[in-house]
Amino acid sequence: MDVRFINPFLEGTVSVLKTMAFIEPRPGKPYLKKDSLAKGDISGIIGLTGNVRGSLALSFSQGCILKIVSNMLGEEMNEINGDIKDAVGEITNMVSGVARKKLESMGLVLSAAIPTVVSGKDHSVIHVLGGPSIIIPFEIDAGPFVVDVCLK
Amino acid sequence: MVDKKIKILVVDDFATMRKVIRNLLKQIGYDNVIEAENGQVAFRTLKSQKVDFVISDWNMPTMSGLELLRAIRADQELSKTPFLMVTAEALKENVVEAVKAGVNNYIVKPFTAEVLEEKIAKITDSL
């Protein structure tokens, strides 16, 4: 995967969470992921097509997503429920949108599908192209999450 | 001067996003808000009660924001309804399509209450 693709997704993630959840996530060092096991407790996955193809996934630990959605809605969320699953889909959609706008300025036009949300212990994130993918790890006080992107 | 008592219809297939927009509207003084989960439900709502302003997501199953906008503009009774499109993708071709269909303005997710207020005011001031 072209490393130029990493920054738009990193910046998109920070922008979405800062604006919608008033949280500034701290990025870690990106690395290559070769298996399909999700890094978190709940994941949003969105397919991407256009000048390049692939998929984007955001995978959140439970504590992390509960804090994010609590901030977004202005009410305390205590468990992974329909509202949380909805929010994961929407966050994934927004990160995809911001990243695709940045990729457009690099000459790459992409469209996105409607996101899917999966959750549960040991759930899988299976990329459209199979993998491997690039993981951008993030941390907030309430727990970690990752951006998992596979584009060619 | 913007009338904050206007009735606003928020259309989005994600309930969370409808809640977020409702909260943002409340922050800027708009309390008279109703919701619809897709364009089809939104259009039925518009035909059954007076709505002063529509804020609609672009990408929705059953009937998209663009399809809803076209239906509104084609309806004699509803054609002048102010319409703010919400999109996660401000790609040039989408903006052009929305303008051709008669959108008043668009707002790109993520956005703050201040940006939302600005966009609503720009539309209502121009009416």
What is this entry, summarized?
The complex is a heterodimer of chains A (152) and B (127). In chain A, 34% of the residues lie in helices and 30% in strands.
Give your account of this protein's structure.
- The complex is a heterodimer of chains A (152) and B (127).
- Chain A is α+β, with helices and mostly antiparallel strands and 152 residues long.
- Helix content of chain A is 34%, strand content 30%.
- Chain A has a single domain, classed as Chemotaxis protein chec (3-Layer(aba) Sandwich).
- Chain A has 3 helices and 8 strands, in the order αββββααββββ.
- In chain A, strands 1, 2, 3, 4, 5, 6, 7 and 8 form an 8-stranded antiparallel β-sheet that branches.
- The longest helix of chain A is centred in the middle third of the chain and has 23 residues.
- The mean pLDDT of chain A is 93.
- The termini of chain B are close together.
- Chain B is an alpha/beta fold.
- Chain B has one domain: Response regulator (Rossmann fold), CATH 3.40.50.2300.
- Chains A and B meet through α1, α2 and α3 of A and α1 of B.
> Which outline of chain B best applies?
globular
- Averaging pLDDT over every residue of chain B, what do you get? 93
CATH C-level label of chain B: Alpha Beta
CATH C-level class of chain A:
Alpha Beta
The biggest sheet of chain B, with number of strands, parallel, antiparallel or mixed sense and barrel status, is: 5 strands, parallel
Number of domains of chain B: 1
Class from helix and strand fractions of chain B: alpha/beta
Described by the principal axes of the CA atoms, the overall outline of chain A is globular
N-to-C CA distance of chain A: 6 Å
**Would you identify the CATH H-level superfamily of chain A?**
CheC-like
Strand coverage percent of chain A: 25-35%
- For this structure, the CATH topology of chain B is Rossmann fold
Find the CATH superfamily of chain B: Response regulator
**Count of strand segments of chain B:** 5
